[in-house]
Amino acid sequence: MKAIVVEQNGPPETLRYQEVPDPSPKAGEVLVRTTLTSLNYADVQARRGGYEAGSLPPFIPGLDAVGVVEALGEDVEGLWVGQRVAVFTAGGSYAEKVTAKAALTYPVPPQLPDEAVSGLTALVTAYNTLTWAGRLQKGETVLVHAAAGGVGSLAIQIAKALGAGRVFGTVGSPAKAEFVRNLGADEVLGYEDFAEKVLGLTQQQGADLILDSVAGEVFNQGMQCLAPFGRLVVYGHASRQAGTFETRPLHRQNKAVIGYSSGHYRRSRPELLRPTVEAVFELLKAGKIRLEIGARFKLEEAPKAHALMEQRQSVGKILLYPQAIPYNT
């Protein structure tokens, strides 16, 4: 089969489209013929090297895929050959075929096209940062950083669907602001002095829940506009910098800083993700949220896709197709 291989850590050009052996499902796994896979920023960080969840080269990147079950390993129940599924992969998903644990394989409802469920990592991360980690309550004010990205664009919509009050988003360029407003954001801000702006918009109360995938200075500012009893959820370090904070305001105003990683759940408690997947599939079926597709590439064009993501010019999800790109989906 064909796959994208990271031969060495470095720029997008280190992604090589080449022939690799077909994978075989082990006990408790399924083999899936890939229809499409999505890019996640974790893929970029893994390719660069030094990312917490990255593998040593050579490796096939990719965290999730949509496709059709081609073979079942021993002891797999409730799934069958020919079934359309979305999966968190056991190996890299930038490939024509992937294996996945049965526990991380989810039948796709017939009402939903492949692209609707293609960003499984983003869908699960957006939902769980708001609910499990963020403990969102109806009427609360939510601030979503990187609001035009794969997770952020979904978090804006899910927050509204779950009854949030006002939802703010930050973006890195004015060109992305209209996109985020169309998702339902009440206010769209740039990163410069956003804490002061959030306080001004909330009569100095701040945001009840902040979702932060950037960290660094963005985290530091976020702590300045986190409301009493507020929660700040850190689920990434796109800035490649750590944030810092004082502990005294936490206990004085009942604030909380919480970490979240879908990857850690996949590795350590995979069974806990199924209720979330079912919940986001229901939101998709009801039309309450939609996965925004920012760009589509053939699998062999993965270097171009990575370059686009690194340039921070894309919005929504970027998809890779092992076969022809069905633009009419």
How does this structure look, described?
The protein has helices spanning 41-48, 120-133, 150-161, 177-182, 194-201, 217-224, 248-252, 262-268, 274-285, 302-310, and strands spanning 2-6, 15-19, 29-38, 64-72, 84-88, 97-101, 105-107, 142-144, 167-170, 187-189, 207-212, 226-234, 256-259, 293-298, 317-321. With 329 residues, the protein is α/β, with parallel strands linked by helices. The protein has two domains: 2-119 and 291-321, Quinone Oxidoreductase, Chain A, domain 1 (Alpha-Beta Complex), CATH 3.90.180; 129-263, Alpha-Beta Complex (Quinone Oxidoreductase, Chain A, domain 1), CATH 3.90.180. The strands form three sheets. Strands 3, 4, 5, 6, 7, 14 and 15 form a seven-stranded mixed sheet that branches. Strands 10-9-8-11-12-13 form a six-stranded parallel sheet, sandwiched between helices. A two-stranded antiparallel ribbon has the order 1-2. The longest helix has 14 residues, at 120-133. The radius of gyration is 20 Å and the shape is globular. Residues 10-320 form the Enoyl reductase (ER) domain.
Could you give a quick summary of the protein structure above?
With 329 residues, this protein is of the alpha/beta class. The protein has helices at residues 41-48, 120-133, 150-161, 177-182, 194-201, 217-224, 248-252, 262-268, 274-285, 302-310, and strands spanning 2-6, 15-19, 29-38, 64-72, 84-88, 97-101, 105-107, 142-144, 167-170, 187-189, 207-212, 226-234, 256-259, 293-298, 317-321. It has two domains: 2-119 and 291-321, Medium-chain alcohol dehydrogenases, catalytic domain (Quinone Oxidoreductase, Chain A, domain 1, Alpha-Beta Complex); 129-263, Medium-chain alcohol dehydrogenases, catalytic domain (Quinone Oxidoreductase, Chain A, domain 1), CATH 3.90.180.
